[in-house]
Amino acid sequence: MKHFPIKIISLLMLLLFGGCQIIGLRTNFSRDLTKEQQRKVVWDFPEDDFLPTQNDGRLYAINGKQMLKTIQQYPKVIVYQWSPHCSSEYCSTLSGLQTLCDQNGITLFVLADYFHDAFSQAQSLSNPLFIANERYYKTKLCPKLEKRFYIDLLGEETYNETKDISWYRYCYFEDGKFVKYRRDPYAEFDKK
After folding, report:
1. Which domains can be identified in the chain, with CATH numbers?
2. CA gap 128, 56 in Å, rounded
3. Is the distance from CB of 133 to CB of 43 less than 8 angstroms?
4. Which of 41, 43, 67, 156 is deepest in the core (most CB within 10 A)?
5. pLDDT tens per residue across span 127-142
6. pTM
């Protein structure tokens, strides 16, 4: 019994310092990226410009309106909400998903959930890696940031109609219009 307070304190410390996921905050930009990586994050991309479509090794902090404007240039697009350490069977490797999209004539845009390890796999992408701009949306709380980004991308009505399945992670567009969320793009392409 005398170790009980130590266990409680240890558990509280783990929750406080060990997991941004638990409290719903995006991980820390300055702590999770090296100085060189920090210089590769573009925060102030002009709102009226199309997003870059060649992977230049940088990470672009964007809003949903910028993503939508760029998507409208392509006949078929998947926006993949990527978590670098996701272990779900429905989370894809970036290289595998890029190959699948290339084989099916689909443009792939990847939106990273966190800064932590965001640069680790991005070199396999044709397009640059993107992240929701917490400065633009004025929040680091993941649920609020995600909601605001997707309302800008899909429109509020569509967002509200689909928010229960948005965890599917794959947003499919045709001719600049949202079609549906996909849970597993591999299974859906195999049905063709």
Report:
1. 25-190 (3.40.30)
2. 6
3. yes
4. 67
5. 999 999 999 999 988 8
6. 0.83
